[in-house]
Write a structure and sequence with these properties.
Order of helices and strands: EEEEHEEEHEEEH
Number of domains: 2
CATH class of the largest domain: Alpha Beta
Largest sheet: 4 strands, antiparallel
Amino acid sequence: MKSSNAGESTTAAVDVVQISKHALWLNVDGEEFFMPFERYPWFERATLGEVFNVELLHGFHLRWLDLDVDLELDALRHPEKYPLRFDPSAPLKYVVVVEKADSGYGASVPDLPGCVAVGDTIEDVEKLIREAIEVHIEGLRQEGLPVPEPSAMAREINIYGMRP
């Protein structure tokens, strides 16, 4: 066990309480955590020495150095907020730019060049751009082309003193 100096790791506050063929249990400062291998697969084939070599950093960060695993205590308390695995059913979230035109609205997707839609109302254009994205992605897949991951970001920036 390491000493508890400010800013350093301590293992005195974290204990591996039990290990079964399905899970491990941790006790961190009196709070117990159940960690099923289905959700935390890195521990299933680990040696006892690797599992027991855990450090608590800064009072909220667990580190298994031998396994190259780092977890925040908040992720153990609220696993629904921290997906640890790729979920193919999770939706792709593309940024859509909607612009007002003379006779309605236009929409485009920066991450999907050429993917556009126009509609009379914002509701129309949102429905149409969703359909356009689905058709665009399906076309890319049929052609054997990669589907770009969403990466564009949108930010509003205030510019003062520029109005006439």
